[in-house]
Amino acid sequence: MSIMNYLITGGLGFIGSNFVRYLLSTAKEKDDKIMIVDYGGIGSNELNLKGLEGSYELVKGDIADRRLMERLINSAEVIVNFAAETHVDRSISNPEPFIHSNLIGIYSILEAMRKKKEDEVKLVHISTDEVYGDIRQGVADEGYPLRPSSPYSATKASADMLILSYARTYGINSIILRPSNNYGYYQFPEKLIPKAIIMALGNKKIPLYGGGWQERQWTFVVDTCEAVYSVIKRGKVGEIYNISSDESIRNVDVVKKILKILNKNESLMEVTEDRPGHDTRYRTTSEKIRKEIGWRPRFTFEDGLKLTVKWYMENEWWWKPLINDKVLGKAPWKVDWP
Ligand SMILES: NC(=O)c1ccc[n+]([C@@H]2O[C@H](COP(=O)([O-])OP(=O)(O)OC[C@H]3O[C@@H](n4cnc5c(N)ncnc54)[C@H](O)[C@@H]3O)[C@@H](O)[C@H]2O)c1
Questions:
Q1: Closest ligand 1 atom to 17 CA
Q2: Is the whole model's pTM more than 0.70, yes or no?
């Protein structure tokens, strides 16, 4: 097989860095090349790839910089686009960076691909199950209407639309993936699971927005990496694939499980004000990727959560410098983020 040149955008973030680790440890062919482009925003951390220095090339830059993307895409065969502003709470206090990265960023990638005018570059775009919005009943397959609720999910849905239009109009090779909530190693402490673990370790109150009744399907990040890789290898251009586990669980129960693993009291949970526009339930079916590609999650929530808790217990050096009162706060959507 010929050498594969990967361009991984957002490769210093949570899922992106796990994917680079996955490629380097299990999947990559000997001479494949990995180029990362990341502008060093929130969630980005070079320490996510500690120990792997020299195995990839890092370009510090913005995916919305069209010239840069033209240059990088010129020597890429597969672009995996993880780059995005992802902290939903922050999209409520300031949507602008979300429009920039999630929308102008993908526009810039698509234009650079169009300029290449070759059939030799494929975009695997990481969208989200949040594009479907609240699924009060039933499950969303890939044809389900998009009804995003937050500025974050609206920019992600808009990106999906733009990609589909470029595929149809210009024949751009693209595949869209819609993963459910991810958890695992190197996730920024502002997100629910790392925040709950860190607060519990310090015997501090864990905020449960609106009581924590919201229901999510949690996918372990290693399973997501396997799904992304299997789609790169066997996915059909022009298709959309949901990625989700079968386990759906309320946020309050996620926190209870964490407290149980850590042998801490449930009195550490604190019901706080709910975030505006908070979706109550996400539920997708990942039948399509399972049937057509043969992917399925390997980790149960129970097992993935134990591994995650253990990792945060053992890697305080990683998360300690990232935390402060704002990041661990009760209402991040009220904070004035830069
Ligand atoms: N984490 C989840 O639960 C989840 C679930 C479904 C989908 N997703 C999607 O997966 C992708 C990765 O999510 P994550 O949780 O790893 O996020 P993250 O915030 O940890 O990482 C995002 C990375 O993208 C980089 N980035 C943002 N804008 C950029 C720009 N304009 N140019 C260059 N780099 C830029 C950031 O610096 C950061 O390193 C995102 O597209 C997100 O929407 C995440």
A1: 16
A2: yes
